[in-house]
Specification:
single chain; mainly alpha; two-stranded antiparallel sheet; binds zinc ion; CGNR zinc finger domain-containing protein; Znf_CGNR
Length: about 190
């Protein structure tokens, strides 16, 4: 499985949204939209009000909830709550040279474009490839979510950074077991 078969990579936007850092307060939403402007129709105003930022956060929480669900009834309930926020009005376009679908109407405000694209992108992947493709990072101290696009569904980490950090940590733990003198801080 790779992204080419999705016909859409909108699920990446959903994952990025779920993992977005919201500590900055309501401004996080505007910053997120500006960093992901390629997903919006050119000319869309990216300034969100505090209320809109709150609604974007609720969408982010629902994406995370779908990724964390461990049983299908849970997935359905959460995915449908997310889809209820969407206002899909799809159209086909080849603005980047390849024919693909956009899910939100062109003139929709930024929040509507975001919510609709995220909900439809996530729902499409879950329906086509299964909700088991969504997961949460196994690295210690990281709870970012991911979509597993590997052929054998073997992904466990949100990023290469977390994967190599965990590999190093496991290696060190193994060395400590084999040779306690190699433990950090142990007097040599
Ligand atoms: Zn496009
Ligand atoms: Zn991670």
């Amino acid at each position: 499985m790779d992204y080419d078969t999705y016909g859409s990579t909108a699920v990446e936007l959903a994952i990025d949204l779920a993992n977005a850092d919201r500590e900055a307060g309501p401004e996080w939403a505007t910053a997120f939209l500006r960093a992901h402007a390629e997903w919006l129709e050119p000319g869309t105003a990216t300034e969100l009000s505090a209320d809109e930022a709150w609604r974007a956060a609720a969408t982010a929480d629902l994406v995370r909830a779908v990724a964390l669900a461990t049983a299908q009834p849970e997935v359905l309930e959460r995915l449908n709550a997310l889809l209820a926020l969407a206002h899909p009005q799809p159209y086909a376009t080849d603005h980047d040279g390849e024919l693909h679908l956009h899910y939100a109407r062109r003139e929709a405000p930024a929040l509507e474009q975001l919510t609709t694209t995220v909900a439809m992108g996530l729902a499409q992947v879950v329906a086509q490839h299964g909700w088991q493709r969504l997961g949460v990072c196994s690295a210690e101290g990281c709870d970012d979510v991911y979509v597993d696009t590997s052929r054998n569904a073997s992904r466990r980490y949100c990023s290469n950074t977390c994967a190599s950090r965990s590999t190093v940590a496991a290696y060190r733990a193994r060395r400590r077991e084999e040779d306690p003198a190699a433990a950090p801080g142990h007097p040599r």
